[in-house]
Amino acid sequence: MRTNWKLFGVLGVLALGMIIAPGAFAQEEAAAAVEVAEAAPEISLEMFTINNTWMLVATFLVFIMHLGFACLEVGLTRAKNTVNILFKNTAIIAIGILTYAAVGFNLMYPGDFSVAMFGGGFFGFAGPGVGTDAAGLTAAYNPGYTYWTDFIFQAMFAATAATIISGAVAERIKLLPFLIVTSLYVAFIYPWLGSWQWGGGWLSEKGFYDFAGSTLVHSVGGWGALAGVIVLGPRIGKYVNGKINAISGHSMPLATIGVFLLWLGWFGFNGGSVLSADPGAVSFVFVTTTLAAAAGVIGAMVSTWIVQKKPDLSMVLNGSLAGLVGITAGADSVAVIDSVLIGLIAGVLVVASVILIDKAKLDDPVGAISVHLVCGIWGTLAVGIFSENSFVTQLIGVVAYGAIAFPAALILFLAVKATLGIRVSEKEEIGGLDVGEHGMEAYSGFQIFTSQ
Amino acid sequence: MRTNWKLFGVLGVLALGMIIAPGAFAQEEAAAAVEVAEAAPEISLEMFTINNTWMLVATFLVFIMHLGFACLEVGLTRAKNTVNILFKNTAIIAIGILTYAAVGFNLMYPGDFSVAMFGGGFFGFAGPGVGTDAAGLTAAYNPGYTYWTDFIFQAMFAATAATIISGAVAERIKLLPFLIVTSLYVAFIYPWLGSWQWGGGWLSEKGFYDFAGSTLVHSVGGWGALAGVIVLGPRIGKYVNGKINAISGHSMPLATIGVFLLWLGWFGFNGGSVLSADPGAVSFVFVTTTLAAAAGVIGAMVSTWIVQKKPDLSMVLNGSLAGLVGITAGADSVAVIDSVLIGLIAGVLVVASVILIDKAKLDDPVGAISVHLVCGIWGTLAVGIFSENSFVTQLIGVVAYGAIAFPAALILFLAVKATLGIRVSEKEEIGGLDVGEHGMEAYSGFQIFTSQ
Amino acid sequence: MRTNWKLFGVLGVLALGMIIAPGAFAQEEAAAAVEVAEAAPEISLEMFTINNTWMLVATFLVFIMHLGFACLEVGLTRAKNTVNILFKNTAIIAIGILTYAAVGFNLMYPGDFSVAMFGGGFFGFAGPGVGTDAAGLTAAYNPGYTYWTDFIFQAMFAATAATIISGAVAERIKLLPFLIVTSLYVAFIYPWLGSWQWGGGWLSEKGFYDFAGSTLVHSVGGWGALAGVIVLGPRIGKYVNGKINAISGHSMPLATIGVFLLWLGWFGFNGGSVLSADPGAVSFVFVTTTLAAAAGVIGAMVSTWIVQKKPDLSMVLNGSLAGLVGITAGADSVAVIDSVLIGLIAGVLVVASVILIDKAKLDDPVGAISVHLVCGIWGTLAVGIFSENSFVTQLIGVVAYGAIAFPAALILFLAVKATLGIRVSEKEEIGGLDVGEHGMEAYSGFQIFTSQ
After folding, report:
1. Which residue of A has its CA nearest to C312?
2. So what's the pLDDT on residue A450?
3. Among A140, A183, A179, which Cα is nearest to A34's?
4. Which of A260, A439, C155, C295 is deepest in the core (most CB within 10 A)?
5. How far apart are alpha carbons A10 and A176 in whole angstroms?
6. Do C253 and A90 touch (CB under 8 A)?
7. How many Cβ atoms sit within 10 Å of the Cβ of residue C32?
């Protein structure tokens, strides 16, 4: 118990620091950001309002993806670890949003590390009449959205990367170390890497293209997942005497709900990445996104039916996510027919990848690496194949992100492993993390097999 | 296993054909469709953008209905068939959207069969800069939405008809035959029948009125459900020695989640059928839709409490759907007080219908025929009672749709039955379709009674 | 059985009266309401359409909160009472909307009791071409929304108060008495109290501020919950020989789904309370709402980890709701950094409150009193601390609402207790309300421990 105290004493201090510290240089920071937007753009108040309204709709759609991730992860793992997974996912979005406010937002846009860290972060803007210039609330800031919309839409994105990791390391990672690693990943690694492209950094200057984040969000999350899986090792009983044992998820309805909510949220994830309500662009993105998801389902369905002789629901679910991740980089710039092709290939790819990753004895309970890393890379490269963008530049981007994201995640996981320890005890893993970490059961009253 | 290979070899060829073939005559088709919209309408870019944004919101709301259907169907059936139902519902939306793109959309609008089949379908439009005229992306196409929005909103509708069938034939139909029947139904029957009214066909010329599809969507789905139930016969143990045995659903929370999601989606289903963001029309439709759903709950609650002595949750849930289906045909054209009446009567009707259909030994596990066919007919006729539309014309429409939809579905089901067989083996039905068709359980680790 | 008949004969008469009676003086009422809006405001049709569209989006978001409440309440209680809770929550929204149409809406705005009761209520407006002046459908009624939008947005709010009560009295209250009490509370108490502030009544004249209803909705619901808990007494086995026994909820996934849906819905609850799509105001409210929820999670997580040594998921879930309730009164008027502080304190407060209320032997199965009453008061007072509004006036408002809401609810509960009886029999409570009140199980086929 003493350990616990010490550890989240640290957590508490971090949280408080995050909240109090930023106020310091608030005024300067606010002034700096607002100066950027001096000239009012040529846009009517009506158009600005529509754009902003759509961006807020996209924001709540991305928000609901976090519930989707939680349901999917819970559904594909065992009943005894349910509370732990739900806890992680609830905590991640809260931590992710607050750290993004404290440092991430200003680290990513404009990417000035010193301003972000010492200038007050997003909290520098203290509220109406207390520091925010009117420019932040009008089209003078951006014709597509207000300053506040900009922040909240991006903040919803940020926590996604951490959530992707969550699924891969499920059922064996200690709670506090997990929260620390993912907090740091979301607060620093994700926004820094994001600034390369969306912050107007070197990759965007090179002509790299990643519309809504096949690489910036999904691969970055996927690299973190891969690092976590390597450092943690497989769950007990997964690989025994060279044999691969399937560990079934405990609720396919939850997994399916999760996937449908993710698909729903993707309308905001991709549709909001247009950064305005432009009718042609947003509706086109809706079409490519949907067709890719549908084709992903078909691709996975046909492959799994052939390979496994029976149509596997979890593969089909991952197939739709694969299609969605695959189309994310090019949803606005590939032909409709090609969005089908991209999704179809992603659906086949995810089935192959899940099988191969399992053969490599990398234990990823929900297939996060296959869905987000493999299909994130595929989607980014597909932009180089199916649109006018350069394949080589796309490849450079993919490699560059991997070259930083993976080692960074690896270092974080190893550092935590060396200090706090990262894996629950064997006894706790077998008994379940719900009782071990949280002292409660997810399904009180239900008879559940102990081996599960 | 050999059979499986052969069968979805066919499926694979179909899927590929669907994707590759349409490219052929793309340019001509695109040109033809765009010609229709030569004159730019008198509408501001702002208004066009709002309209289009609302239609996209309506689109994602209709999308979420598919999750609603999945949850409802799963909740009202037994645990052992859960994976199968989730699989069907995930596959249906994917197949439905892709077939609608390939043939359905152009078959329904403008209803030119030859263009739809040989002109490339929706895929004829190959994407930005590769075939789509700018007219498809501006108010020149339609003041309410872009070409892409038109397609994606309608595509979300199309799969609904198949999903309605899914619930009625649950727990005993083979997977592949089901997918084939519903694919053909969605690809050809639904859009052809739809073209009679929404495609500007003969019924619309006669003055038939069906605002959002009490008949065009719900009855059409309901007729398919009825045909399926007749061809399949009841589940084992449902009717024994003239006695009706209730087979309880395994998760009332899932059923309730399903109904609330359907209600939510209906705001888009009916609200989007205004085909613009017109403030008066859309808000009026929100009001009638909500009041009818609420009245449906009350109607079903009071009836079931009287008839069954205890208030039955599944009846009340179906009551809200009954109210929603009932108001769908006239949501924009009946008085507010009449929307309450229509919903109330639908709620009573669904309780009576569920009981009578059961007495007729038609085994419909989720009450799909009662909700969608019976209340779809009621809602269509109600337009002839509560608005200025002719009752006789409404009746003609109801009969005409039944006269085609039911035999068409019957032929499809019988054809599949004669060739592939349609019903799982007795052993598989008792053991559950999850293990039989998919080789997996929905609730791994939970103790579930074998008889269930 | 005889009792049942008699009782809901009353219910049926009430329902019918509600539907038929209002028609009477319809025309006069309609005329009166429309007169208010004679001068068309200075707003473009485009802006009016955007505003109205956003308000309808907010409406469906608030609608989905009812599913959130249902899932949360079900998840935090025992499996044997699931059907009963789902039934209550489905019935409440239906009854709430219909009674709000019949009396609530006109009682709250403009608060003229005689018009509301005898003038036809909302149903006075009979529909297009049957009584509604065009003014109700244009910006002449209100620049932010049509007459219909006004009603439907407010109607979704109204049922919330009843739903809050539902959670607190769960697992032991009889169905019919519950429905009667909450119907009367929603039809009369809630709108009358609401008229004090939102109807332009005495509190609004005093300068009281409650942006979206920390007091008007949440405290009012919370006071009802407190009254119900007192009248009902604790569940069997909860407090035995001075010892407090925790009664675990049966589905933490459902509880978590509930909280995420509530959070989602709150974007509409608070965002819609701007009453237009004003870009600055709505996006600012999105930010404060989200940050408060996130901070509530952190506040509860840290407190529970310290106090209970293990991080408690249900506390963290309630923490996010606490943050949301806390920010509701001032979401548009406190600084961003203060929204974090308000949420953080609410998160700590809810943990302390749940523990103290349990020590006081007030058995509130879902923590409704702590979340909605305690944090509702906190949020209202916080407006007096963190904005320019007077703390004293805020306190007066808090006290005034409590002074009416609590006794009113108490009288309702006591009256029902004296006449119909309010609590199920001991045998039924132990066996579960699902079988007792509804004759069905929620999880047919699952092995569930009888003691649960």
Report:
1. A438
2. 56
3. A140
4. C295
5. 11
6. no
7. 16
